Amino acid sequence: MNARDDNKVAEGAILTKFERREWFLENLRFLLSLDLNEDPSGEDSRSESLRLHRMEATINSFQEQPYLLDPYLEEMVLPITETIKSHVKALVAANPGDANVSVRFTRVCSLLYTFIKFRGCKTIVRFFPHEVADLTIVLDFFKIPLDYSTTWVNSRWQVFYSVTLWLSLVCMIPFGLDQFDEVHERGKTAEAIEGIAKRFLCRSGVEREGAALVLSRLYTRADTKDRLDEFMTWGEEIILESTDLFLAVGILQVVCEIAKTAPSDIVQAHSSDLLRVARSVDNSKGFDINAIVRKLKTKAVAHTGIRLLPPRAVPRFRKGKSLVPLDTHDILRTEGEEQDVPEEMEGILEDLFQAIQDKDTVVRWAAAKGIGRISERLPSDFSGQVLETVMSHFEIHSVGVTTINEMPSIAEPTWQGACLTCAEMARRGLISDQHLPVLLGWLSKAIYFDIPKGSHSVGSSVRDAASYVLWSLARAHDPKALAPHASGLAKRLITVALFDREVHIRRAASAAFQEHVGRNGLFPDGIDILRKADFYSVGTRRNAFLIAAPQVGEHIHYRPFLIDHLFDITLRHFEFEMRVLGAQSLRAISELDLAKLGPENAARAAKLLSCADVNEIHGGLVALNELASCFKSRGLEEERQQAFRYLSELPTKVLQGTRNEMPLAAACDLIGASISSVEITLLDNSSVPNWRSIIEAGLRNRSVSVQESATKAFGSVSQLVDCSDDLTRLIRELRAGLPPMQQSLGTLVGVLDYKSFPHGLENALAFILESVDRKSPRFLRNIEARRNCYDSLPLIFSNVQTRISDYISPKLANQCFDALLEGLTDYTTDERGDVGSWIRISCVHALSKFVRILFIHSESLPNFVDYLPPEKYHTAVGGILKQGVERLDNVRQQAGVQFLELLRLDLPEVHGKERWRIFGNEMMNELFSSGEGGGWNDATWLYPKAVHFLKIPEYRDPILMGLVLSLGTKTESTHRPVSSSLVEFVQGLAPEDGVYPQVNLTGDLVKQLKTNFSNNNIFIPLLQTSDVLLESGALDSLNGNAEGEKQLRGMLSVVTRSIPRIKNISRIQASMKVAVDLLAFPALFAVGLEKSVEFLLHQFPTIRTATAEHLYLVMQSKDLGRETDGAEDVLLETEWSVIPENELVDVTKKLLELLS
């Protein structure tokens, strides 16, 4: 089994059989063949631990299908239990001082626990040895003088759990325990078993469960049951007086196990003691606040009550088999037989009724199951009273409440507990026909239980439990009794299955619907509905709302109920996404009969605009927007205009108040979808006189989503009338406003339709060009505003692409192109990081779009070369490639996608079109046509290919700078691939010949160093690139090459210039490394040593130390052509960070003498 197999196991592949049986058994034999008395060495321990981990992972992969391993359990578990027995026997026989619970033995027990965990204790314990002699072996094991401190036991818990589990089995031998006692020590064996179990009863791990099982088995033996009274007294005292939570939990586990599995005569004889111990939790010192304690108390009370009543011989439910097996210790009772209900039952039921209101679900669930099981054994009239009491819990928080939303949030646990209890009773056929209408009335409310609470809601557990009740009714109730309610049930279930917020509730409702269809066949069109809204279809919220709901809406029987639910609940929901999806679903359903449903639903949506809740107003607006868009696409002009008129019913104060972003954005969307030229020309006489102010308020809003909606609305208006005056005014007003207003202005100029006012296009482009020009006094400092301006350029060209020459002159087009090229150099940073990358991505997209538009419409441009000169085009390609090899993954990915689109774009249909062919296109196609996995954001995939771009002279400079900036990054996932790829590429270059000689590469680096000497953001990465190439020996072939040494001498001169005046530590260190690396070239050794000594004399101690370390490493790794042992000793022995200045000069002089 290799790593790939481990991954398959971890991914949870669908399993059908135990395919790794032979492998597992082989590893099991190896594990059991080891010497369990010895602890393994370090390497052996790691190997054995890995083997065990893989075996456990194999077993755990069957966690959801444990029955698949049943045929193999005996051959896998039996060797383990036999090994445990033989080893325990050996430990018992050994010298007490030599006994040791080794790591290997612990691992064997750990593997056994893995089987217990996935298949259950009851199944695995059958494979434990259970001979009479085993009892002595186990008891003697616990007599071994081991370290039972908490830390040691915690590290060996698998061993003690396994052995206590074994003890719980062997202590049930059908012989009296006194046979193991000495004559004068009667009861010694039972006392020893009890002492061992009590020792582990206070542990926090699973050993406590094993100990509880031992005690429950011990106290239910015929010869030791007299010890139960003493344990009950002790347990009650511990719970009342102690503060040991784990011990209290252990005691309650024992009580639960006794009440559940002991013979009925023992339970009935000690019922008062069992109940007294369980109820003592209420008077304890804080144990009652623990959910586990309360759950165990509830289970103990419930199990005691169950065992006080005999089971029915004939279950009352009509389908399936008994959910609770009959207890062979109990006396069976027929239905007609009279029964006396014990007096304790009233108190037991009262405790359980209180528990179904508990704040923790585990407690409520335990109580619900207890009530269901007790009711199953009660006479019919008594179980009916129990059901009435349970249903009365629904009324506790319902007094004076008209809707579910008005309930307090504390009602959730009570309603869920009542639903769970009703479900447990329904599963057992305990819901009578006379109680069914009342129960369904409450369930029709519970299935919609969703109470807003702050930024979230409570109630999902109630809705889930209500679905469980309806599912249970389908399984156990008479179809004739359900028939009158079938139609309402079907509508409610399918509505929840389609429109609930939570995926598990949609699936639960779908499962309940399916159960009713499959078992009762009462739901209208049930089979067809299931095909459209099955368990998987409703798993995704968007799929449920937009695909399954319209398909179900095709059935007239369900359509009105679906629409009512959308208006009554979904469009009023507190969550924004639910309202939007609800509006989209309403549109999809309305399209089934748009002429009829469209106007009706629009009128209903308009009524929501007068509500007080802003969420309901927003729901009405988004519904009207969706319907108006639908009317527009279908050509229903009158209905669309009516949707616009409904906007007049929206109170103005809603849009002017605080927290108005959602309704304001929705109102702008509605205007954009429904406005007409008639309403525009009416001006102040329009049915919605303030529609312009709504749009302008949206443009001035701080929210980006509101701005986008407002700009789209203004764009819709621009398609109908001349907006040039409004545009000029808005540019003037918003440009002088706050940054959020400037952002909306940048988006606005891109969405307008200039076909209605061509003269406004020049003003818009002038505004954009001024806003992004760093030299302009109207340059926008806000990064988002500039990004929006760049995003608007391709939108404008797209709007006029069919008549570019009529709207945009070649000069203006070139100005826009230059602005985009300038945007590729924006490396603005702030507290958010490299925010300039937003602009670079926008410019990459814009340039690609610009080129594609011009290429496609080249035949209609008589002067195409003026619009896109070849040199500008290739400059853009080089700029995009530079972004494609830079350090940010997202920028590389976007640039790579756009470059590949340009690479595969057909050339323009003009004379001399080859001038626009990308240089090196054949090599590019070869590099990226293989269809390999990975993308431009994957550095390990990209850079081995990208370094070959340097072979193209026309794009070499920008690509080299892109690689340099990537190599200078601190991100290891980028730095390592680019540095290794560049070194490998340079090593393959010839010194002076070839497509890109090393001499030329060095000269390009020196040129860039000189050009960017004052720009640390570029100069430092250039230094780091030079250091990588020199340190790796990629440029060693320049040794002895006159031109190469000339370029390296120039590099040394640049990197060591003005070092005393430079304060940037990173730059000084990078310069130092380059200067020291150049010592490997004999022609540069003298001057390089002189420069290196300057770094050793630097005023910063950090620089002196770093220089000494790097100089030592170079001496160790490279052949400098001279003896360096003395110099190395000086470098190592000198404290460079604290050495006095006068001594520093002497040391450096000595170092020079040694190396000269």
Automatic annotation (TrEMBL):
Per-repeat ranges for HEAT: 348-385
Keyword list, A-Z: Chaperone
GO biological process entries: microtubule cytoskeleton organization; post-chaperonin tubulin folding pathway; tubulin complex assembly
Keyword tRNA-binding found: no
InterPro entries, alphabetized: ARM-like, ARM-type_fold, ARM_TBCD_2nd, HEAT_type_2, TBCD, TBCD_C
Record domain Tubulin-folding cofactor D C-terminal: where: 874-1067
Alphabetized SUPFAM superfamilies for the sequence: ARM repeat (SSF48371)
Location of the Tubulin-folding cofactor D ARM repeats domain: 333-527
Keyword Protein biosynthesis carried by entry: no
A molecular function GO annotation: beta-tubulin binding
Signal sequence bounds: none
PANTHER family (alphabetical): BETA-TUBULIN COFACTOR D, TUBULIN-SPECIFIC CHAPERONE D
Protein name: TBCD protein
Organism: Thelephora terrestris
Lineage, top ranks: Eukaryota, Fungi, Dikarya, Basidiomycota, Agaricomycotina
